[in-house]
Amino acid sequence: MTWNFVAGAALTADDLNQHLPIFVDKTADETRTSTTVCTSDTELFVDLLAGRTYDIELKVSCFAASATPDIKIKWINTGTMTELVARGCLGPSINTTDVEAVATAATTVGVVRTSTATTLATEISYGCDGTTVRGLIVEKFTLAVVVAGRLTMQWAQRASSASATTITGSSRIIAVPVA
Predict the structure, then answer these.
(1) DSSP 3-state assignment of 116?
(2) Structural domain total, the chain
(3) Residue 113 belongs to some domain of the structure
(4) What is the pTM of this model?
(5) How far is CA 170 from CA 25, 116, 173, in A?
(6) Residue 1 resides in a domain
(7) Could you give the CA distance from residue 100 to residue 86 in angstroms, rounded to a whole number?
(8) d(CA 124, CA 165)
(9) Is 7 exposed, middle or buried, given 0-12, 13-18 or 19+ CB atoms closer than 10 A?
């Protein structure tokens, strides 16, 4: 992002704030049961300004009470936003039996890796292993914002289950203005 200064002009807090990353930290665990319909997370959203380009990074820490439900994530937004760099997704694959393990004959392990034309509205599924071990999900993409609006992460269980799926309070969104 460029800095536009004129000799003798005053540097304001607003000038500086336009260049700062926006950190949105989830403060409390959020749990979903018996649902496969993605709905908005209560805390993981960010308001983006018009005329800006942002690098977006999502870090989600999650777990499920059983290996059945897993988790799926997608995004919605108000305003007008154009995806400039495709959404890249990393995390445990579905049906994993150990989110920490290295692949061996005794465990089902995998990693979701996608950077192909995955839109924000595409539901991406990730695995939970049915323990209290927290799997880490990371998503990254770049957005150009034409009309200001709110970008919101939505999520649900991949397979409906009475066993809870939880996103922990250590999850976050980082929006870095780059242009």
Answers:
(1) coil
(2) 1
(3) yes
(4) 0.85
(5) 7, 28, 10
(6) no
(7) 27
(8) 15
(9) exposed
pLDDT per residue as tens, the chain (179 positions): 566 667 878 888 877 777 899 999 999 999 999 999 999 999 999 999 999 999 999 999 998 888 788 899 999 999 999 999 888 888 877 766 555 555 554 444 556 566 566 789 999 988 887 766 677 899 999 999 999 999 999 999 999 999 999 999 999 999 999 98
How far is residue 36's CA from residue 84's CA, in Å, rounded to a whole number? 29
Give 130's contacts (C-beta < 8 A, 6+ positions apart): 64, 65, 66, 67, 68, 97, 163
Range of the domain at 131: 24-177
Q: Which two tokens stand for residue 109?
A: 């392990």
Residues 6+ apart with CB under 8 A from 4: none
**CA distances to 13, 20, 98, 135, 157 from 17, in Å:** 6, 5, 42, 33, 37
Would you call 41 helix, strand, or coil by DSSP? strand
111 inside domain: yes
Separate counts of helices (H) and strands (E) for the chain: 1, 12
Is there a domain that residue 140 lies in? yes
Q: Quote the tokens at residue 54.
A: 């942002």
